[in-house]
Structures are given as C-alpha cells and as structure tokens.
## 1
Amino acid sequence: MAETARVIAQTCVYGHVTNINGGGYGQNIGAGYPATPLGMGNFVTEGLYNSEVNNYVSYGSEPDTSKLNQWGHFTQIVWKSTTSVGCYTADCTATGLQNVGSGVPPYFTVCNYSPPGNFIGAFAPNIGVSIGLPTVHADYGLSSMTAN
C-alpha cells in the first residue's frame, strides 16, 4: 500500500488514482501537508477525522450516501474490515503540484486502504459507535518529541 501511494504521490498531479499496481484499494488524498509529524498529523487527524467525524450520524445503519463528501474520509479511515494502510507524502517543490489552487504548499499525500471501505450496504457492520474518548488534535504529544 505504501509503495503504491509513493508511486502516485510522486506524480505530483493532485487527484485520485486507484488503478496502479492492480488497483482494488480505497484512497484518501491531501494537498499542502508536509512530510513531518505535524504535517501528517494534521492530514490524518484534522483533515480526515476531526473535520468529518461529527458529520456522520448513521451508526448501526446505512447512511445517506448523497452526503458521502461530508464524511467519506472519516469512514474510510475507521472502516473495520480494512487491514492495511499505506501513506506517502511527496515533496513536489521541483515540479510543482498540479491541479491545486495557488498558495497551496507543494506536498501531495496519498493514503491507500485495503480492503477498501465505503461500500453501500456494509456501513452498519464496519462503522462502530464512538467509545467517547476526548478529541485528540494533530499536535498531541509533539512537544515531548521536540524537547531536549
């Protein structure tokens, strides 16, 4: 999964590509997040999870998939039957990152998931109810990593 994510990210063309190395995986992509602990933390924690978790309300049932764009990144990262995840962030400074607006830092992150999630008819058994732990943000624990 990570090697395939690397191949896709290093194209520096922002967009979903799910047919490399045989395909069959789910995918989340992000632009502008550098390959640092905080950058990756921001992408996964803030960009995919915290920004969408409260939009998903169909625990134990099938959701209205017309609203997938409001919570689909979240459901992919917590999809129960997904057993393998691989991510890669490419630094596209040399070539520029294509298909993004001006002012977006030139970093392209691709995360691939296998087996993929977000299958109609399979949400109820794959998206569990929150266990109620406090919200964690991208910078959680980073101060201890950078301390002398």
## 2
Amino acid sequence: MEKTRLLILDSHGILFRAFFALGKQPNPMTSSQGELTYATYGYAESLLKVIEQIKPTHICAAWDAKGKTFRHELYPEYKATRKATPPELIPQMERVRELLEAFSIPIYELVGFEADDIAGTIAAKAAADDIETWIATLDSDLIQL
C-alpha cells in the first residue's frame, strides 16, 4: 500500500515569486483579452513541477486571508513597512484560486492567520498521523518545518 504523501502549497509565496520573477520581462504574458497572466502561468508551472517531483497522494493550498492577523494585535508594527499588493496581481490571485478549484485542490484560509500559520498547523497534524508531509514554499519561516 502506498504511503500517504501530503503536499501543502504556500500559495501566496509561490504566486508572489512568479509575479516578481516573470513580471520583469519586457512583454509580460497576457490572455487574448489582454488580461495579465504571467503570475498565474508561473504558479501553474510551479504547481505542476512540484506535483511531478513529490508525487503527492493529497494536496491542499494555504492562503493568506485578507486583513490583519493576530500578530498585528500583538505587535502593531508587524509588517508595517510592507508594500501593498500590486494591483496587477489581484486579478491573477483570483485566477490562481480558480485554477486550484479546477484541480479540486482545497484552499485553506482563516481570518486572522497567515498562510504559513495554516500550513504549519496542517503539517503538524499530518505528521502526528504519520503522514509524509511536504510544504512547497520559499518562506524561510516555513522552510524550518
């Protein structure tokens, strides 16, 4: 019997990486209607690569909920210098959510928590159940897990 292997996607991290890496090109990728799609494409490409490498039996996506987190309550200056999400990324975020839904990949988000909190919680619970768990991320906080 094949061992259960869970892949948790740090969706915002993957999407932001694709956005900033591919957005530097002179002619960013667009749809036939002119909608920017380069970050969506980069996310999809990363998703397919990690699925091929890990060969998970289960996949889920951790997603940052809108608004402040419990860390803002504890420390009001938390991420105070972080720039707002670029407006050209927002529609691509919706496209990535649609992509995940099309692949039947559940999206987990919770108001007051970041995606890495969610990914860490899922990973801890899975490990307690002896499930081999992988987190696809570039976030140094999550890499420690």
## 3
Amino acid sequence: MSVLNAKECVSPLTRSVKYHQQSAEIRALQLQSYKMAKMVLDNNLKLVKDKKPAVILDLDETVLNTFDYAGYLVKNCIKYTPETWDKFEKEGSLTLIPGALDFLEYANSKGVKIFYISNRTQKNKAFTLKTLKSFKLPQVSEESVLLKEKGKPKAVRRELVAKDYAIVLQVGDTLHDFDAIFAKDAKNSQEQRAKVLQNAQKFGTEWIILPNSLYGTWEDEPIKAWQNKK
C-alpha cells in the first residue's frame, strides 16, 4: 500500500467522499438524471425504425455506488492500488445509485435491451454478475455485461452493441462512457471541454451524465485562483 502523509489524507478525496456519501444534493442530482433519462428514452423510442432499441449504462458511480471504496482509502490514508480495487470488486460494500433501478425497470418494461459496459476487470466478472443480480437488476447476463478486455476499450464494446441494436440512450458518469472522442481525441481537460461544447446537443438527448467528483481527466489540471491584489 502507498501510505500518504496526514496532509495528503485530507486532499483530494476527503471532501469528495463526504459529498457523495452524505450530501442530499448528490441524491437529488442522481434522481434528476434518471428522471430525465426516462423522458429521453420515451422520446427516442419513437425514432427507432429497423433495429431493436438498446440502452447502455456504465456501472460504477452510474448504477453502483462504490464510494465506500474511496472512503476506505481516506480512512486508511492510502492511495488507490489495483490490488485493493480487485478485492473491492469481489467483496466491497455496495448500494445502488438512486433512480438507477427505477430507470432500468422502466426500460425493461418498454422492451428495450439493456447493456452494462464497464471497465471492471474481466477476471472478476462472476463477482460483478453476482453483485448485479443481488440487486435484481434486469437483463443481467454474460452477454449483456461487457467488461474490460485487452484490445476492447469501451468504444469497441459500444460498436459491438451498435451492430445489432439501435442505441437510443447512454448513461454514465465520465465522458469516456459516451464516445471515443473524449478519450482518443482529447488528451486533457481543455480539449475535453471543447469536445463537450462541440457535442452539446447530445447531452440530455442521447447522453445522460451523472455527477462524479472523485476522479476524472481533470484531476491533473492546475487550479485557477483569484489574484487578490493588496
């Protein structure tokens, strides 16, 4: 484990963890996102012609609440490691993001195919499937849960879905959950922000993004500060 000093323990995760675990606002935002997702789904289903409609959702911080893992890092004054995350995938305490189950059941009732595309590890797929089934999420199967594989980034897995289905909606918590342009073509937050503006019409009509202040491309960017002239 990579041990941090006391000052680093407070930053950068402490406030983010408290916000995600304790704030009422985060729950309101999550419920609002999934309420919008239902409305967008209804609208987009009217546009489907030939293929069977499908929705794609990320898992962690989109369907599954894994903020206890970040809490574990803060409480134990350690950094993320693949080893601790591997154990969390198998044994971690999880809850559902508010609104997720309601949306998924709604999509299922509309005859929509559901795919869960996540960068959880392939070797722990059995544990992930068990977790999803324990929450009684609809359409959980080997075929519908597409996890991280070498040579198959999320964009490739989305393309596999698009071969047979009309993707009417995607739900995620990072831009990488929606399109490769935010990963391959945008190397930093500034470029990502430009891509967001270029694709503004897709947010709220094809893509629904949930809040996540724990991690992202923005982590390594400098902070802008007010220049207080004395």
